[in-house]
Write the structure tokens for this entry.
Amino acid sequence: MRRGISSVGILAVAILVVGGGLWVLFASDNGGGSSTIFSGELHNVTAGSFDITVPTSGELASEKQINIHNHLESGATIIELVDEGAHVQMGDVLLKLNDEQIRENIRNSELSVSSALNNLQTARSSFAISEKKRDSELAVKQLDIDLATLALKAWQEGEVVARRQDLDLALQTADKDYQRLLKKYESSVDLYEQKFLSKDELDQDEIAVLKADATLKKARLDIDVYENYTHLQDKQKKESDLQQSIDEHERAVERLASEIKSAQSNIEANENQLKSHQEKLEKQLSQLEVCVVLSPASGMVVYASSLGRNREDREPLAVGRSLYRNELVMTIPDTSNMIARVKVNEALSGLITKGQRAAVICDALPENIYAGEVLSVGVLAEGGGWRDPNRRDYTVEIKLQNVEGSSLKPSMRCSAEIFVEEVSDILYIPLHSIHRDGPVVWVWVQRDGGFAQQPITIGKFSESYAAVQDGLNVGDVVLLREPAVNQIVSRLPKEGEE
């Protein structure tokens, strides 16, 4: 009979790296087993140690990287682009964007700024003229008030006093003249009776008395008319002239203040307009600056279209492509500080803690094993997507510690083993040898030229091994697959059997 896989049926083969050793385990996929036993299908039970590890996979990433975004708000079309994977120095040109429209906008904005500046200067000149007009007109109005005040005071202290003195003098003069002529007339009457005066002379004296009486009455009437009418009329006119001057001054103050306020508002409006045009110009100048993107540090260029999930569906970065605002265009990773970003099933995530050691192997560099340390464990689980909607994984970041001189790059596929715990000084067997029937855990133990079912109690286990607490001894040999029927020497009794 030929020895080989064909003689035992189709075997499931697992190659595991555990504790620094290479193990090849076989498990049969047919329930009847095979009568041919290979050495690799048997395991000698020994006491020792093994590591509990969590195997996982993911991608490499840079722990620190500089992201280059498109800061042009619109019309961002690439006209020059550095090659992906190129090593650039600080200050090197990474990409250039079309700036024709921006330059045209800058020219228009410069004209707008110049026009707004002229409008502001005109508004300030108008404001200065309005201030001078206000000062001049208010000075004229104040002069009218002063003149009206002086006219009122001159009338009160001059014209009124002089007029009253004239009227009093006229009254006193008329009264004395009347008294004199009255006495003369009375004397003339006596002389007429005594035949010393003629009738004509008496009549002349009587006429003089009548005229003097009329003059006296007129003097009294002039005083009454002046005090009751003329004085009041003149007073009201003088006071009215003063009040009108005051009112006109107040109206001028309000009107001119409104004109000044309007001129000031015009200045503020033109200042705001100038500021708006200047800000627009400054923004467009800043937009012109971002049309040329320079490298902020030295490193290797990685296009954003080559990163993350679904990168095959993304439009590749190339000259002529349009970018949207704040789009991540490329990154410059620090390849001297690399991490492995891997996924751990939520059932095992509770075993992972920060600081645990790990081993990482890149698919592109399988000959190198990189030591690592867990940096962080994700807070929230992520779904498995449409391929496996029930799967829930946590993202774990592992810091790679010995990458000097390596040609590692972001997004390289990698696998990792996270070392959770070391189990020491205990019997252990491969997981492939363990079977379970309800609550009973058992293995096939080599005995009496065949294999017998042996119940065991297991403790801690890893992806490859389980610690045996009871049921086996050092030196026992267990089979890693189901034996052939003719190789079974004893079985455990079924539930209910004696």
